[in-house]
Model the fold of this input.
Amino acid sequence: MVLVRKTVCCGHPLYRLTTLPEQRLRLERLARSFDDPQYRDELYELVRSASEERRYREMISLRVGVFAMPEFETPII
Done:
């Protein structure tokens, strides 16, 4: 299930929240989680980890010459 969709415009990533009715409950729970400082810190840490993973995958893909690698797939070196 996708809550956030990423697009690229003018070389910059843009993120949009889904508006599908079946996703609204998850979005509401996410918003409520930000009210709790501990949950908010955990969410920020998850986002930082995902960002580091993305940068690592980009670096590896350039190193092995892979230019189009699907997200969450690991190249075999």
